[in-house]
Amino acid sequence: MDRVKKRIFYYKDEYVKNVKLVHHDIATNRRYRLDIELKNGDNEKAVHIMMINPSKANEENSDNTINRIIKYVSLNNSSGILQDIGKIIITNLYVVCEIYPEKVDEYISVHSLDFVKGTDTDGKYNNDTIIEMANKEAQFVITAWGRGNIFDYDNRIQEVFRLIQNKELYHMEDLTQEGYPRHPRTWAYSWRLKRYNI
Predict the structure, then answer these.
(1) Nearest partner of 69 among 53, 89, 99, 83, judged by Cα
(2) What whole-number distance in Å separates Cα of residue 31 and Cα of residue 186?
(3) Which of 43, 111, 170, 187 could be 115's S-S partner, Cβ–Cβ 3.0 to 4.6 Å?
């Protein structure tokens, strides 16, 4: 059975100043890094948000999750942890663009686990290097990958923790029952960030 075509989401002018696909490879359907400059806040102050894998957001079109992140940061950057944050850096555990995370395993079967992680030697970029670069630019990291039914998922999380261990880490509200940081699709705008003690 064919899945219903997803609606197109746009960036909201009231929040967004500029969007840039910093690292992407159209030929292999992989997005490594997306930067969003906000209208309020200081664009020199960034937060690095890490999720599971990209959906369809690019420079022209957004998606529901990215719009929720933008609104959350914009509504909460006048005080507290997010004070003056004017730039959002998005990276992911995996780089293949897929609306349904469960389909990521199909990419692993067809290509390889390293291809999906964006760490293959034939790739245009190295995702682990890009994650480390994003860490250097950001004030702190929000882990937001949620639970994933993807091959070798927990090992990938541990690999990424090693890349971001020297940065202040946060997650939204409490961890899930399974112990994962909550994915932004579940965030409420009134929720608060908490330090992630690994």
Answers:
(1) 89
(2) 22
(3) 111
| Amino acid identity for residue 142 in this structure | I
Are the CB atoms for 68 and 185 separated by under 8 Å? Answer: yes
pLDDT at 160: 97
Average pLDDT over residues 15-19: 97
pTM strictly above 0.85: yes
pLDDT at 76 over 60: yes
SS3 for 161?
helix
Query: What residue has token string 């910093």?
Result: 22
The structure tokens listed for 60 are 């022209």
- Both tokens assigned to 92: 């992911």
**Token digits for 156?**
């990938």
Task: Give long-range contacts, CB 8 A cutoff, 24+ apart: 153-159.
Answer: 153/93, 156/93, 156/94, 156/117, 157/93, 159/117, 159/128
- Cα 81 to Cα 37, 141, 166, distances in angstroms: 18, 11, 18
Cα separation of 37 and 35, whole Å? 7
